[in-house]
Amino acid sequence: MKLTFAPHTLHFKRPFKIAHGIRSSTPIALIEIECEGQTGYGEASMPPYLGETHETVISFLRNSGDIISKYSNPFELGNIINEVDAIAPGNTAAKASLDIALHDLKGKMENKSCWKMFDCNKDNTPYTTYTLGIDEPEIIKQKIKEGESFKYYKVKLNGENDKLIISTIRSATDKPIAIDVNQGWKNKYIALEMIEWLSNQNVLFVEQPLAKENLDDAHWLYERSPLPIFADESVQRFNDIEKVSGCFHGINIKLMKCTGLYEANKMIKRARELNLKLLIGCMSETSCAISAAAQLSPLADYADLDGALLVKNNLFDGIEFMNGKITLNELPGIGAVRKLEL
């Protein structure tokens, strides 16, 4: 197998603000793995909190080349992924790009969609949320109109003008909303007060209200919250699931955090054993990585896979949404088609 890769930058349609800050772009890397006339596509997305850059991802991919090239095909996928994971700790987005490309390649060589590999029923896909970043009231109202075909909205909060944001949304729509705080609330008492207020605002769940390492307060909040609480930053990989059981009602699994589909599937199975709800999420990504994550979406309760809709330069065609419901196609692999040469 032959590995090639190149850096790119995704540009947002509008500046995107969350509790961590505001930005107008995200660095990504696109990769290809070729074998017997087929090409598997992968993607690494590098939001600031992951700590990866174009330089670190390209360096890791260069170090992965010998592992990829020594295998004649992707069918020993688990062994390849485990070898890549052992190169160095961290580097989860870089590892995810290889995992996605290997799954895509394997599916194409077997003429099989990845959702079939994972024994999913493609009719059981959830509805994705449509994300509303932190903004001025009039801009929020414009975003609501842009996402009016979606059944649910995802609302970013940061502990500053939270009630104004929610009141603005409620003046424009009564659709259910999911709340994502990105660790933005200062303490458990503020979090509980806000959640109690939100419980009357047609809210589905609240994601990562407190600092990721603050599991004692997360447990306190979990026992008192009238709404389900989901872990995002507190859960990166498989080994994090046990420690958050009893602190959250559910977890957000993202390919860029957990190194890809192989580990995400393992996380789903373990989370179900622990009676945790599941949200399949994303970073700022093209339809390559979004389509990959969507292959597992029939196994989840919720989805937040609108990342490619928020960027100007989506480099792939992939899964679509029917009134917000994820619609998987029959294409082999991850179901994404490249629009731009690497």
How would you describe what is shown here?
35% of the residues lie in helices and 24% in strands. It has 342 residues and is α/β, with parallel strands linked by helices. The chain folds into two domains: 2-111, Enolase-like, domain 1 (2-Layer Sandwich); 116-338, Alpha-Beta Barrel (TIM Barrel). The protein has an eight-stranded parallel sheet.
Give the distance, in angstroms, between the N- and C-terminal Cα atoms.
17 Å
Count of individual helical segments: 12
Uncertain stretches of 5 or more adjacent residues: none
Strand content: 15-25%
> Total domains, how many?
2
What is the CATH third-level topology name of the largest domain? TIM Barrel
Cα gyration radius (Å): 19 Å
- Describe the global form: globular
List keywords for this structure.
2 domains; TIM Barrel; 12 helices; Enolase-like, domain 1; alpha/beta; 15 strands; 342 residues
Secondary structure layout plus pairing:
Elements: E1 2-18, E2 21-35, E3 38-45, H1 54-70, H2 77-85, H3 92-110, H4 114-117, E4 129-132, H5 137-146, E5 152-156, H6 162-172, E6 177-180, H7 188-198, E7 203-207, H8 215-224, E8 229-231, H9 241-244, E9 250-254, H10 255-258, H11 261-273, E10 277-281, H12 287-294, E11 302-303, E12 316-317, E13 320-322, E14 325-327, E15 337-338
